Amino acid sequence: MAISRGWRPMYRHDPSFHVPFVVVEQAPTGSPVASLACRRRRDLLPLRLRGKLARSASDARPTGQAMHTVREIAYVVFFVWLFIDAMVVFRLKSSESENRDRQSLRLLMIGNPIAYAISIALAYGRAGAMDSVPLQVTGLVILVIGIAIRTAAIMQLGRLHTPNVAVRTDHQLKQTGLYRRIRHPSYLGALLGFLGFALALGNWWSVVVMMGITTFIYLYRIREEDAALAAAFGESYRQYAARTKRLIPWVY
Q1: Which tens digit of pLDDT belongs to each residue from 114-130?
Q2: pTM higher than 0.90, yes or no?
Q3: Torsion angle of the four alpha carbons 139, 144, 149, 155, in this order, in degrees rounded to the nearest 10
């Protein structure tokens, strides 16, 4: 094997600009070098290309740091919201009500934490990674919007809001505010919060798992709640249900 070094023009129109190169001459396997023509291979790595590769690596580091920062903010917002929400909702629980929950609260308390844990674990893998800070920031915005909708819905319903599916003895059918167009705005806010948090984690599989589990739980809870309110209010609730949607105005 013979190695030679030298300089060659980088561009034909600019012969004055040269870059270093290395020529490697290697004889075919099993043949004497003196009796066979050498096979040439020129390994050229211009200095400008090296610079581009270095800049690409350095540009990736700030992006990774930004993604990590958005994720950490999402953790704080999400879990502080869950804590405050639980404190408020469970304080509204009353013994002066008929429990018609049919295990939906237990399903929510077991299934939702499982969804959180799996989604967070998936966020640290490369499979399904978004690699998009704007998408994560969008998720953070959706998370805040979801929290705002759920908070407003709970405040408008007041003491009639309970953690379990139940009908109070003095229960009144709420048909104003957020409840004018949809019957379960607090669940809409919760699902938007879950969607936003999963997007802020920066992984598509986190979104799939989070929304798959939580949507199933809340749809089951909505069915039980609609049945309980229809049994309690009769025709007035059926008329209200006929002119409103469950979660999304004019859609569902």
Answers
A1: 999 999 999 998 888 99
A2: no
A3: 150
Average pLDDT across the chain, whole number: 79
Residues 216 and 160: beta-carbon distance below 8 Å: no
User: Taking the CA of residue 241 as centre, how many other CA atoms within 13 Å lie in the half-sphere pointing to its CB?
Assistant: 15
Percent of the chain at pLDDT > 70 equals 69
- Asked if residues 74 and 197 have their Cβ atoms less than 8 Å apart, the reply is yes
CATH class of 66-242: mainly alpha
Burial of 52 (0-12, 13-18, 19+ CB in 10 A): exposed
φ/ψ (deg, to 5) at 169: -65, -30
Helix, strand, coil distribution of the chain in percent, nearest 5 = 60, 15, 25
Residues 128/204, Cβ–Cβ less than 8 Å: yes
Enter the DSSP assignment of 101.
-
78, 193 contact by CB (below 8 A) = yes
Query: Is the separation of the CB atoms in 225 and 165 below 8 Å?
Result: yes
- Note the pLDDT tens digit of each residue in 65-96: 888 899 999 999 999 999 999 888 777 665 55
The domains of the chain are located at 2-44, 66-242
| Residue 157 CB neighbour total at 10 angstroms | 18
